[in-house]
Amino acid sequence: MMPTLLPLIMLAYRPFLDPIDVDGWWWWLVIPLVFLISMVYKAIRVPTMRRYWRQVAKMTVQVMFVMALMCIGLYVIVLWAAPRYF
What we know:
By secondary structure, this protein is mainly α. It has one domain (6-85). The chain has helices at residues 6-10, 30-45, 52-85. The model has no long low-confidence stretch (mean pLDDT 86).
């Protein structure tokens, strides 16, 4: 390997060793993830494509709503109920 290319290789992005700093907004990445999973799931499962986008939107909202309820439930258990018993 040529010695002049070594600094350029050292500056390359290494995803597992140098993760992107998204501490403040990584929760927002859940929305497109759920949407894309809903698209794939409904593309396989719906009998006709007539109401495909409506069903994708419905499943996306349902999954996000359940995830929000689970977050609230875990918050209540961990920060409110558990300290009272331990």
